[in-house]
Design a protein that fits this description.
Blueprint: E1 6-10, E2 16-17, E3 33-37, H1 74-80, E4 89-94, H2 100-112, E5 118-122, H3 127-137, E6 144-148, H4 152-162, E7 166-170, H5 187-204, E8 207-213, H6 225-229, E9 232-237, E10 244-252, E11 260-266, E12 269-272, H7 276-281, E13 291-298, E14 301-313, E15 321-324, H8 328-342, E16 349-355, H9 367-379, E17 387-389, E18 392-393, E19 399-400, H10 405-414, E20 419-423, E21 437-441, H11 444-450
Parallel strand pairs: 4-8, 4-9, 5-6, 5-7, 7-8, 13-17, 15-16, 17-20, 20-21
Antiparallel strand pairs: 1-2, 1-3, 9-10, 10-11, 11-12, 13-14, 14-16, 18-19
Helix pairs in contact: 4-5, 8-9
The structure holds thymidine-5'-diphosphate (TYD) and magnesium ion (MG).
Residues 94, 96-102, 133, 136, 265, 267-269 line the site of thymidine-5'-diphosphate.
Length: 451
């Protein structure tokens, strides 16, 4: 009997199986299996003569050749952990149209002033289209070379000949290997393409940026395998309707994943936003009820944001609640706490909560700000000017400590705030707070009194 020449792959996680299955045993997704031809097996890969390597001690490894390349975009360098590591493979994921190609073209532009061989491979746009985009971004030096190609074998030949120092592949889903008969974007093609690029990166010491499209549920389309193979995974996110974009590190073998970079899409490409708090707070109404400034931590970076609440009497039996930019259940929970612990009759009121700027907040430290925004709107008293609020609220109405209180206070001070309402238990952590008044609260009731 002829042996099966095809296998079934889970399109979500890359699990392979000899037969079709309704549910993937690895990632538990339903209906994700698709039939793909088996990749040809590679023979004689195990151990080549004369290439056996000796184990070495950590101290004997030279590390001075790990020179990082500064991209010239400080926000990106920060997310990468201090610059591009030669020989590393960086995956940049994000929704279509978010600005991945623009960002990488700008990186190429800024590097092309200092490096002499940069290659931008596009499988999606024609040279004319790239030129149009480039014309908006600015002048390019001739060390940047463009290539429209999707065939991996040809790409490999070109790369070996040109030996670029930095290379961009836009996007991995369009690349294909002729020896595999499944369509570009399928699990086996993506896996193979990433494998080829990884080999090139490591052997030739090329820093490779790979663009990956994201599916509706927020993961890079195709297999998770891609994320395991690369050194660094960056996600480019942001609201399509707002002009700012956040670049977030999800995995980084050469740095921390706690960093974010903030950019703004302008008519001349992406611009760095060095002071995100100021940017997010611009246009905030002064003296309006229901508006509270909170401090969120994005990794190690504090960011001030405005929480807005609108509470009004419900016309139906069931109050309406909507939460934009935060968890809906958390809003319901906090409103239940207010109802029970402060006796506010909120079950007869609709509540609409919004985080200005289209940011998503998931940190518990914003609870207190949210609670005060709801109270402020319910009573129609504005929160005093120049005040920021942070703290976690527990089910008995207590205000609990949050991490990095010092950084949050510092950020508020930097932006000219004069009063901070914070958990009582955080007070001890804060040093050097001249010029800013700290109001420690231990329960929601105290916080309400502080309004
Ligand atoms: P793009 O980089 O093509 O997105 P991706 O590669 O992630 O799919 O981004 C294109 C969007 O950015 C498009 O909607 C137009 C906008 N844009 C600007 O607003 N200003 C610019 O200078 C450029 C180049 C693009
Ligand atoms: Mg693109």
């Amino acid at each position: 009997m002829k042996k099966n020449a095809t296998l079934f792959f889970c399109q979500n996680c890359g699990y392979e199986s000899a037969k079709w299955m309704g549910q993937c045993p690895a990632c538990r997704e339903w209906n994700t299996f698709a039939e793909e031809p088996k990749a040809p097996s590679v023979k004689g890969r195990s151990m080549r003569e004369g290439e056996r390597r000796e184990p070495v001690a950590l101290g004997e490894i030279r590390s001075d050749d790990q020179q990082r390349l500064q991209t010239g975009m400080a926000e990106l360098d920060q997310v990468l952990g201090g610059g591009i590591v030669p020989g590393s493979l960086v995956l940049v994921g994000g929704d279509p149209g978010i600005g991945k190609s623009t960002l990488l073209l700008q990186v190429c532009r800024s590097l092309s002033g200092r490096l002499d061989r940069i290659l931008y491979i596009s499988g999606e746009e024609s040279l004319q289209q790239i030129r149009l985009r480039a014309a908006r971004i600015g002048e390019f030096s001739s060390s940047l070379k463009l290539l429209c190609e999707t065939n991996l074998a040809d790409i490999e030949t070109t790369v070996l000949k040109m030996k670029p120092q930095v290379m961009v592949v836009d996007s991995i889903q369009t690349m294909y290997q002729e020896s595999i008969s499944s369509a570009p974007g399928s699990v086996s093609q993506i896996r193979e393409a990433t494998g080829v690029l990884m080999r090139l990166a490591k052997q030739q010491n090329i820093a490779v940026f790979i663009v990956g499209h994201v599916t509706k549920d927020g993961t890079v389309a195709g297999p998770r395998v891609l994320e395991h193979m690369v050194d660094t995974v960056l996600y480019f996110e942001g609201d399509r309707h707002a002009s700012y974009r956040i670049l977030r590190g999800v995995k980084n073998r050469f740095g921390s994943t706690n960093e974010i970079g903030v950019f703004e899409m302008t008519d001349r490409g992406l611009e760095e936003v060095a002071n995100p708090s100021e940017y997010m707070l611009s246009g905030r109404p002064e003296g309006a009820s229901g508006s509270v400034v909170v401090c969120m931590m994005e990794g190690t970076r504090p960011m001030l944001l405005e929480v807005q609440a609108l509470v009004c009497k419900t016309n139906f039996g069931l109050p309406r609640r909507t939460a934009a930019g935060m968890d809906y259940n958390r809003l319901n929970l906090l409103m239940a706490v207010l109802e029970k612990r402060l006796g506010l009759p909120l079950s007869g009121y609709d509540a609409y909560v919004n985080i200005a700027g289209g940011v998503r907040l998931s940190e518990p430290a914003m609870d207190l700000g949210l609670v005060l925004a709801v109270i402020s709107s319910y009573r129609d008293i504005p929160v005093p000017e120049r005040t920021i609020v942070f703290g976690e609220v527990g089910l008995s109405g207590e205000v609990r400590a949050v991490s990095m209180a010092q950084q949050r206070v510092q950020e508020a001070k930097k932006l000219g705030f004069t009063r901070v309402i914070l958990p009582q238990s955080c007070l001890a952590q804060i040093k050097n707070c001249s010029g800013i008044k700290l109001v420690g609260v231990s329960a929601v009731k105290d916080a309400m009194a502080a309004l």
